[in-house]
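Case study 2.
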Amino acid sequence: MKHAMKHAILGAALLAAYVGVPLLFGGTPYVMGLIVAALTIAGVALAWALLGNLGGMVSFGHAAFFGVGSYTSAVLSMKLGVPVFAALLLGGLGAAVASVAMLPALRLRGPYFALAILAYAHIFQILATEMTPITGGAGGLLSIPRFPTLFGLEFGGKTGGYVIILTIILLSAFAYDAVRRSAWGLALKAMHDTEIATRVIGVPSTHLKAAMLALSAFITGVVGAFNAHFISFLEPDYAFSSTWTVLPIAAAIFGGYRTVWGPVVGALVIYLLDQLVFKPILPHGHQMVLGVLLCAMILLSPGGLLPVLLRRRRSEGGRHAHA
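Prediction:
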């Protein structure tokens, strides 16, 4: 009965996401653009949370994967004529390959690992700036191919872009949840308690961490590739901007980075609140309000927003059951 109820709720949520949102906001390009931007941040937040929750690694350099994925997909589609949707996946693959260069950093722990990944992000940004014949250098790439029209749906528009990024997030979340429930997920959870003990019993901790880094990089790279084709422009300072690290971290922590859907909920709440409520009221100080909101959430509910909502729902369900 519970499984049937969960499937029904999931089906209703998917129907609302794929049909309800475009029907409500499809005629308002500005709002649809904000939702797409929020979901783009949500995709990176989900990948960041996967690495932090399962891999036990805090990263300050996910902008590296975002930028590598963006440039890989853009260059392949522009200069080699690779179809855009294929280039999207290859962008994720390019980011995963780039994560191999970061494997030496897996020997580091805590803030040392986080700072090492941040350094890699700066290295990739310098490479993108200097490789002018391929990347366009500091001037960037203009007129990146947009998503095509398929089955009568213009994927290059706001609504089409929304459908693509929503699908990317859903597939990424399902992959995250599958890994978390697998034997790998159990081993990774055990590593959080005592990594030395898990190594003694034969758990290949370094290999598992490398796999989580590659998966997180792949998801972030696909999101970066999507963004490049959606806005049709790219330059190093934008592709490797710290924004693609700071906002996702804030979203993941606000929503609850130890849950699968918390980072997505967090990104939608903080970005849309910031752009639709705080920014019109305080055009030059709206980010400060966002910071205060984040601090309040950390102090009042360190687990994030989603766990609070779930606990509230369970308590209400319990009251109704006893009534």
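Strands lie at 141-142, 149-150, 153-154, 233-234.
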